[in-house]
Amino acid sequence: MENRSDNLSSSHNEQERLNKLYGYTALNDFVLSGTFQHVASMAAKIFNVPFAFVSFVEEENILVKASVGIEGESSIIAREIGLCSHAVLRDDVTFFENAKLEQKLAQNHLVHGDFGLQFYAGAPVKTQDGYNIGVVAIGDRKPRKFTKEEEQLLVGLAAMVMDELEEKQALFDHQSGASLKGKSK
After folding, report:
1. Superkingdom, according to UniProt (predicted)?
2. In this structure, is the dihedral angle defined by the CA atoms of residues 114, 78, 5 and 49, taken in order, positive or negative?
3. Is 153 helix (H, G, I), strand (E, B) or coil?
4. pLDDT in tens, 105-148
């Protein structure tokens, strides 16, 4: 079994990553959540998996902004149990073809509990200046292979999420600047 999840990101520290994440006030926008839901739906169809999600990793929680196969489109998961907490720390795609065989996941109840997650792949949502602030991920309750071509597709979906977030943030920043100028007159 090959697992390409050991390439740790060493270019930025956690506090800088969190500061960058919290700077994206557009993450609270309802319309943006619809775009993220579209990406999650596309991922589930492209990879033929029952679970797909777009999440952003905070200091203590993982904010699931959109999902397929998980109750509720938006939820919060404790960072210590979510597999996205592994993926956000790496510069490449993190995947577990059979998570039940991974020693580092031996105590993870998403893998060994009722949920029974066995396959997981997550691509970091990376800012233009290299901070991994979130993850586009897919999962299944059965093991499966994950090819280089599939990795590239998942990276492309993560890039789409970042592009959309940057575009929405630029609009928010422009509107905020315009409203501040209007108030100062």
Report:
1. Bacteria
2. positive
3. helix
4. 988 888 988 889 999 999 999 999 999 999 999 999 999 999 99
